[in-house]
């Protein structure tokens, strides 16, 4: 086994200009990630003995984390090897089995080196956040030595029982979230956030990469099918709701399959028209060609295309191929009565808008919370109702009997759809306050406003995370205004410029600012807070 391990290494291609062109051709957007790769190339060019960095790409599914790893290897001119870590729960998968066991073998790291044949490849540790743990050990703990630049020059596999130098290997890990990665392992990696795409970026990616790929896979040409950008936008907004482009790619695959059927039928029809009914054979015998005789479509590829080519895919064609739209813009309808507000949430799949609904009824002052809420979110709801009760006179909020004690003979029910999805975190605090203020005042919340922020008992609005993904979710939903904590204003620099142009941002330092922004005319009628210049 030792004789099979590579001692040779591949020579890095350190042309930064060529690397920039290659990265731009393979992936659209992702500027922060591309910048980090080019920085590594520049330093590697100046210092040849540079140890390989440990990078971790964190982002929603379908944004291209795995494919970027391949592009990095292509850019450097190195061999590429992917190690799938999802569901791995035995540390021997990393370190190898001791030779005393029947069927023992080296771990995935050593096996990967044997496969690529060089000692400086690019290793992609895919789905590192989905490592398991069992009685056979913790594979995340086994990765600590592998991913530590100060230790991995002397990595020992249990099967080999001989140290091997991993310091020249470029390790790239991918994850959907850092929440499930052990802190010790997280500390050894350089985290690079890969956010979701905007609608404009998805359209560009679709026409640069996804559609040409699907056409090639289905044997079609651009002369046979035409998908306008307006149709692509319809697919994005009505048939997919995701941060990445994985579902979008599948929709284009379904469209190409439907068009392939039309093309094949047209070619078969042309072939039947051009086929002679009979031929005179040797000895005067007549050989009749039967219509039922099978014919390969590949044999008719040079025939004329059906007259309706290219097939135009418009909204009506989408309904025939993909069925009725899966998603509709329902924001205005759901905010057509008091007691409903729109919040912004972050998930490992990207940002999402979140509705909060409230109702009141006669009772004994109880607060009911539904929607699979975690402890932090439940505490935010109790904070919100306590702050409103203490400020009821200031805002002229009363219960059904006209009392300023909002829970006097009154029960409150707060619901967070969808009920089957687990939710937690403090960022819904401002949304809960706005929802309850709407309920007790009888006023509608603006249907074009979404908000996020943690609250305190004194009415302060504290910063929250995931701001870029949340803003992109509001933009995807067609909202026009986003209320954010004042201390999150700096995070807007990461939001693409065209998204900032389409949205107005209101920064809030206290709940007074939030309520004034959420209701037309203020709450109560006061001067509106200043609108942050979107052209940051």
Structure description:
With 536 residues, the protein is an alpha/beta fold. The protein has three domains: 2-193, 3-Layer(aba) Sandwich (Rossmann fold), CATH 3.40.50; 197-263 and 308-328, Helicase, Ruva Protein, domain 3, CATH 1.10.8; 330-518, Ribosomal Protein S5, domain 2. The chain contains 18 helices and 20 strands. The chain has helices at 16-26, 31-46, 65-76, 92-95, 108-116, 139-146, 183-186, 199-217, 229-239, 246-274, 315-322, 331-334, 375-390, 392-395, 429-441, 467-476, 497-502, 511-518, and strands spanning 54-58, 80-84, 122-126, 155-156, 163-164, 170-175, 190-193, 225-226, 278-280, 286-288, 311-312, 340-347, 350-362, 367-370, 410-415, 449-451, 454-455, 461-462, 481-485, 504-508. The strands form seven sheets. It has a five-stranded parallel β-sheet, with helices on both faces. A hairpin with a 5-residue loop joins strand 17 and strand 18 (461-462). It starts with 15 loop residues before the first helix and ends in an 18-residue tail after the last helix.
Number of helices: 18
The largest sheet has its strands arranged as 2-3-6-1-7
Low-confidence stretches: 278-306
Largest sheet: 5 strands, parallel
Question: How far from one another are the termini?
Answer: 58 Å
CATH topology (level 3) name of the largest domain: Rossmann fold
Tally the structural domains.
Answer: 3
CATH class term of the largest domain: Alpha Beta
Mean pLDDT: 85
User: Beta fraction of the residues?
Assistant: 15-25%
Shape: globular
Helical content (DSSP H or I, runs of 4+):
25-40%
The helix/strand class is alpha/beta
Q: Per CATH, which architecture of the largest domain?
A: 3-Layer(aba) Sandwich
- CATH homology superfamily name of the largest domain: P-loop containing nucleotide triphosphate hydrolases
Q: What Rg is obtained from the alpha carbons, in whole angstroms?
A: 30 Å
| E-strand count | 20
